[in-house]
Amino acid sequence: MTTIDIEKPVEASRAKRLKARTNTTHERLDASIMAGRPFEDRRRYGLFLTVQHSFHRDIDALYSSAVLEGLLPDLDGRRRLDLIGQDIVDLGIAVPDVAEAPVFDGDADLPTALGWLYVAEGSNLGAAFLLKEAAKLGLSEAFGARHLAPAPEGRGLHWRTFTAALDALELSKEEEDRVVAGAEAAFRCVHGLVRETFG
């Protein structure tokens, strides 16, 4: 009898490994958001916007990081805090006045920052469904739901460009773990904001 060596499958990309390792936390967050009924009416959608604003305020400094800009394509063009602010103004509600310093303010641990950005950019990929729900409230890419609009090149390509750059980075095992920890922390942060805002 001949023994045949079976090739091991090629290791999944970093983005796919991140998805697998954070899946439970991500699903818990999605369920929590939808339990808050953010598209029931404009008032509840306004609560959703305040959650979005708080999260993107926490990570806004990452989008102007020269180090990260050198690693990830069009990073500054991916920021959404200002668009969320415009959506809040469209709805006639107050922009949240947060006393605490944002999570990231200046230099950040690179692997940790990558985990947080993975969460932020991934949420934009799934925003097509949210935009359709917002449209039922009379909102659009030009009014009240600007931050949910797709990139000019389309959501899929926008995401693939980001994940290709993320996958190409050379990181140690310990740094890989910090990327995962960063993504988990980002999901937990949003989950906390949802609980605090929607009750």
From TrEMBL:
GO biological process terms, semicolon-separated = heme oxidation
Q: Which GO terms describe its molecular function?
A: heme oxygenase (decyclizing) activity
CDD domains from the entry? HemeO-bac
What is the top-level taxon of the source organism?
A: Bacteria
Q: Sorted alphabetically, which InterPro entries does this protein's record hold?
A: Haem_Oase-like, Haem_Oase-like_multi-hlx
Name of the protein this chain belongs to:
Heme oxygenase
Q: In which organism is this protein found?
A: Aminobacter aganoensis
Q: What is the lineage of its organism?
A: Bacteria, Pseudomonadati, Pseudomonadota, Alphaproteobacteria, Hyphomicrobiales
